[in-house]
Amino acid sequence: xxxxxxxxxxxxxxxxxxxxxxxxxxxxxxxxxxxxxxxxxxxxxxxxxxxxxxxxxxxxxxxxxxxxxxxxxxxxxxxxxxxxxxxxxxxxxxxxxxxxxxxxxxxxxxxxxxxxxxxxxxxxxxxxxxxxxxxxxxxxxxxxxxxxxxxxxxxxxxxxxxxxxxxxxxxxxxxxxxxxxxxxxxxxxxxxxxxxxxxxxxxxxxxxxxxxxxxxxxxxxxxxxxxxxxxxxxxxxxxxxxxxxxxxxxxxxxxxxxxxxxxxxxxxxxxxxxxxxxxxxxxxxxxxxxxxxxxxxxxxxxxxxxxxxxxxxxxxxxxxxxxxxxxxxxxxxxxxxxxxxxxxxxxxxxxxxxxxxxxxxxxxxxxxxxxxxxxxxxxxxxxxxxxxxxxxxxxxxxxxxxxxxxxxxxxxxxxxxxxxxxxxxxxxxxxxxxxxxxxxxxxxxxxxxxxxxxxxxxxxxxxxxxxxxxxxxxxxxxxxxxxxxxxxxxxxxxxxxxxxxxxxxxxxxxxxxxxxxxxxxxxxxxxxxxxxxxxxxx
Length: 538
Ligand code: GLN
Hints:
Layout: E1 7-13, H1 21-33, E2 39-45, H2 57-60, E3 64-65, E4 71-72, H3 75-83, E5 92-94, H4 95-108, H5 118-137, E6 141-146, H6 156-169, E7 174-181, E8 184-185, E9 190-191, H7 194-205, E10 212-217, H8 223-233, E11 240-244, H9 252-258, H10 261-268, H11 279-289, E12 293-301, H12 311-323, E13 326-334, E14 348-351, H13 360-373, E15 377-380, H14 382-394, E16 401-403, E17 412-417, E18 432-440, H15 445-450, E19 454-461, E20 463-465, H16 467-475, E21 479-483, E22 490-494, E23 503-506, H17 521-537
Parallel strand pairs: 1-6, 1-7, 2-5, 2-6, 7-10, 10-11, 12-13, 12-14, 14-15, 15-23, 16-17
Antiparallel strand pairs: 3-4, 8-9, 17-20, 18-19, 18-21, 21-22, 22-23
Helix pairs in contact: 1-3, 1-9, 4-5, 5-6, 11-12, 12-17, 13-14
The chain binds glutamine (GLN).
């Protein structure tokens, strides 16, 4: 039986970063999938870190966590949401990983007698890493997004590797999509093509001729601008695609489809176009755009100035909102600046992920306020741990209750290091990570939301509820409705619904598994409770 010849589509970026290459890649993926093709997506990050886990979210945005526990760039979150797939650590290739593999091979003597060089050894390793994923999955098309901007020193070995792949696999099996910025200048609002021309020139100097140019612009590209880019960059006018501002990123695939991008790419790769099916996607978008109600959710966080730190929360709320035909408006509150007045006009509160002591006390005040005012509350990971601390301090009267993450010797260490974390010194990829089973207790809010007693959710933490306090916390009225299968680790905490309409927190991160067409139960529950609250207020 003939094996599928995988086609590769490489997505590069020019002019500057932050052009939404991740969304472009995810959108192309969705469009190809909508034509019946099997698709996967790979992200290359040219930094020397082995993974994104040790980076501050101010650097590249949120650290996304996969089922297998790899901590990756947030673009993989977009791929998972648009393609509705679960990816693995192999879908994220970094310079750190590539060099580590090459150096390990050198030490094992696999290059015996040779001088180990960027070309061919590093480029071979890059090509092998890309092909390994595509071949393992047997996909028709593998999309490979190259992070950074053409011209960066770090990107060079990757650009060279993808140039070689075009040469080796042949023109009909490899296509290049280049994304650039088209700024609008002056009172007349002229769309400028020069930055695009320059970045394409740079790409061509490296031996890569783009097939498609996606122009990021605040407005649709004018026909004469498309023609100009086509002429100067040596592509047909129909291969110049507008990527204008749209209210929801989920609209981007439709904007591309209308301009014929899918047909163009299929033709270029010699794939037979099949009938398009975007029915469900369009229904989801319709629900988003046609939202009849609005709920306001406060998010008390630490990196609120950079909203990219919390992308998965925003998306999970959006998905859950769409299911209830509600628009979710997020009120961003910097934890250090929190005061009670900030929760006056919101319908619910989220306290998300966090590390270190800064912001903890502000978040604890916010949780107390939500508990006392019976405001719907969802705490996640750090938010879960802080909810336990708040309960211990203010309901149980355990003065000074704290996490050993912030205070090494508190009088009541209700949150403490996981036993398996105690001897760990290295910080990379050493947390409790990835999908882990959670057993949900029947008759609880968690069970009502999930509708089942066993779920899998993704984790990323070092601390946990101290087992010595579990019994006393439960007797005081905070129920641990989800636990690890051996019963040792507390996974979900909730207040009984007769006391509070919706107060629930999870040690895991449900936001990582939310998809447009399958919102996650804890977020659905929060939105439903917020809607009930906003009706009361009206
Ligand atoms: N800092 C906490 C821990 O390591 C919470 C982590 C998180 O919110 N992801 O356990």
